[in-house]
From TrEMBL:
InterPro entries: Indolamine_dOase, Trp/Indoleamine_2_3_dOase-like. Keywords: Heme, Iron, Metal-binding. The keyword Iron applies. Belongs to the indoleamine 2,3-dioxygenase family. Heme b binds at H376. GO terms for molecular function: heme binding; indoleamine 2,3-dioxygenase activity; metal ion binding. The keyword Heme applies. GO terms for biological process: 'de novo' NAD+ biosynthetic process from L-tryptophan; L-tryptophan catabolic process to kynurenine. One of its GO terms (cellular component) is cytoplasm. This is Indoleamine 2,3-dioxygenase.
Amino acid sequence: MSPHAVITPTISPVIDEAITKEFAVTENGFLPKSAPSKRLSDSYYAPWERLAYRLPLLIQEERIRCEVDLLPVLSVDNLRSEEDWRRAYVILTFLTHGYIWGGQKAAEILPPAITVPLLKISSHLELPPVATYAGLALWNFASPSSSFEDVESLKALLTFTGTEDESWFYMVSVAMECQGAQVISKMLRALEALRVRDLDSVSAALEWLPERFRTIGDMLDRMHERCDPMVFYHDIRPFLAGTKNMSAAGLPRGVFFDEGDGKGKWTELRGGSNGQSSLIQFFDEVLGVEHKPATRQSPTGKKEEVSYHEEVRGYMPGPHRRFLEHLPRLGSIRNYVAQIADREGNDGEAISPEEARLRVAYKGATAALTEFRNRHLNLVARFIILPARQGRNGPGRPGAENLASASSALARQKGAQAELTGTGGTALLPFLKHVRDETWRAGSEIK
């Protein structure tokens, strides 16, 4: 267990300093209270900053590996604040993925200049040493104001491609996170209201949710405005890939983290994915949506039970993970609604108007979350499925072995039956449809 993984006190029903300190949840939700640092505070880390600034050009010219190989092994002792730790994590994970995927073939060995500090920084932040949603979006943006809802004013600090397409892709997620912050405070109050059986307040919160889910979904639908699906699929997405289940992309054993002096180990990790958003799992937790382990066939042919949602929490910052783990202790709206339905259906007991309103409000909220997930499926079809089947026309690195080349080849080979792999290492469409259906059942199974 991580030294940071302590049992936490009861959450107060508002986002106050205690919650921010304990769980890193702010008035902006899982985003920081203020925009992330643009540079590390100590000039000692200038070698990292210089490479990060030049990353798109170094990748384009296929010089990223030789430049990283020349880096000194820097100590983490000069990281002075949590903002510094986060900035260092963002830089080193971008350099990591640039190094792995920035050539004609995937690099299987990560050098000590990256491995040694990254392992220590990741341990401090309770994150794996790989690009995660936190490093790609939550801690990787600039904003002219303290409000991060205006996607037009946001800009990514680091990208692999230097394109507006890539910056927009990350910033849409940042804006969605900020829009979802209100859901956190509203639903914490609803859970407190449930504890004292103030059912009208719980119902009011649930009745408010569908409009908020639509607002967040509307932001998701803006992805195409400045992010071209072909650019995303062929130029951006390959760099988000992890090292787990990536044999077809040239990493049958994952990546070797070389710590120098003969130390190191082979590691397989999922890549950056919006499935690592704590906000989306917060929606599931407060609505009681259960995601049961799915059965899949392993590379050896053996069937195995896989709980992606539990595993992916290990790719969230430690405080956010503990926040999600604590939520069930605050009460379950779904269980209460199910008890109402059982009393009426099995016992023939009349329920109160307040209870009837709560049941309708709950079913409406889960239906709205289901619709949000349908919108996400439509986005996946537009940005991944169609580009994979169309193939690449235009500039790029056509000979490179990466997630895009492996997925595209599979799609062309198997057509509509192909199971494209997501950056997180999952079979994409079956997984997303399974999650969507579980969300629908959370409400539809209550009569």
